[in-house]
Each structure stands twice: as C-alpha cells, then as structure tokens.
Amino acid sequence: MFYDTAANRHGLPHDPFKAIVSPRPIGWIGTQATDGSLNIAPYSFFNAISDRPKLVMFSSSGYKDSVRNIEATGEFTASFASRNLSEAVNKTSIAAPHGESEFAIAGLTPIDGTLVKAPFVGEAYAALECRLTEMFQPKGLDGEPSDNYVVIGQVVGIHIRDEAIRDGRFDMATVRPLARLGYMDYCDGGDVFQMVRPTR
C-alpha cells in the first residue's frame, strides 16, 4: 500500500506512522518548577543525538509542564526507563494538574541532581543530568511552526546503579530497556506487551 500523508487516507483503523518509526527509547524527563514543585513525565520522541558533546533531545506535543519548567530553569534529567519500572513509567504519563507530583502518583523516589536541581527517579538503573542548550518549535513544509517543542540538553552528569554494571558494561540483560512501539505496544528487547495510558 501507499498513501499520501497530506490526506492521511491509509484506510487502517489507526495511523501506522509511529509504529513504523519504532522502537523508540523513552525519555523519562524530570524537572523542577520555579515554585519548587516536581514533575516527571515519559516522552517517546527521545534519543541521544551526539556523543561529543553528549547531547540528548526530546519532543513534547504541546507546551507541557516539562517544557515550561525547562524553559524557566534550563535544567532537566532523563531517568532510564526499564521493564521493571514500566507500570510506574505509565502512571507518570497521566495529565496531572500543575504542581501535583507524578513522583508521588507513581510511588517513586525523587532524588536531587548533583549538578542540576531537577530530580531523577531513585529507582532507575541510570539517569542523565542535563542543561538546556536549545528549545524550538520545528516547522513543516508550509514554514509554520508545529505545536511540538524540541528540547535539546547537554548531559553534564550520569548516575548508574552498581547492579546495572556487569563486566565493566551497562548490562542490557539486567536493565531491560523499555521502548515504545506503535499504538499501545511496548517492548523490552524481547517481549512485546501493551499498556493503556491512564486518564486519572
């Protein structure tokens, strides 16, 4: 089959675009607002984009608390999303009111960064401390900015739990990274499973 994305008439029950661009690592983004409130949210448009310097990016559909907090403070963390924490990752996707901590909703331990004030997930196998380098709204072919916000940060510090290191490596068999597929599907390098995003 072929379809023109301008009309998006694919004839399928669900748009297959995000299923084709998969698996996608999940950026579990931690921020702190200027009022001190904490926020943690998963983003499946996330990846490393450079090693020298170490840069990561995520894209938010809309101007959400994560974007607002990073724009105000210039700092964020990216906690490692793993299979054993998949339910907690899913719980933090809830659209909680500003100021209500998703850490508390998911029963997670917020840990202050060493070099940044933004918190990371204490239960995560690893976490990146980041400082904002760029934020922008990408444009389409019409030249108009989208409703998405691309956030790029330089990694200034890395936390790794001792049990995640085996034979001098960050061990994938131990940490089982969680990735987003299309629709409600996720994978951990082996099994494919589904999770429905909570509404409250």
UniProtKB/TrEMBL annotation:
<protein>
    <submittedName>
        <fullName>Flavin reductase</fullName>
    </submittedName>
</protein>
<feature type="domain" description="Flavin reductase like">
    <location>
        <begin position="21"/>
        <end position="172"/>
    </location>
</feature>
<dbReference type="InterPro" id="IPR002563">
    <property type="entry name" value="Flavin_Rdtase-like_dom"/>
</dbReference>
<dbReference type="Pfam" id="PF01613">
    <property type="entry name" value="Flavin_Reduct"/>
</dbReference>
<dbReference type="GO" id="GO:0010181">
    <property type="term" value="F:FMN binding"/>
</dbReference>
<dbReference type="GO" id="GO:0016646">
    <property type="term" value="F:oxidoreductase activity, acting on the CH-NH group of donors, NAD or NADP as acceptor"/>
</dbReference>
<dbReference type="InterPro" id="IPR012349">
    <property type="entry name" value="Split_barrel_FMN-bd"/>
</dbReference>
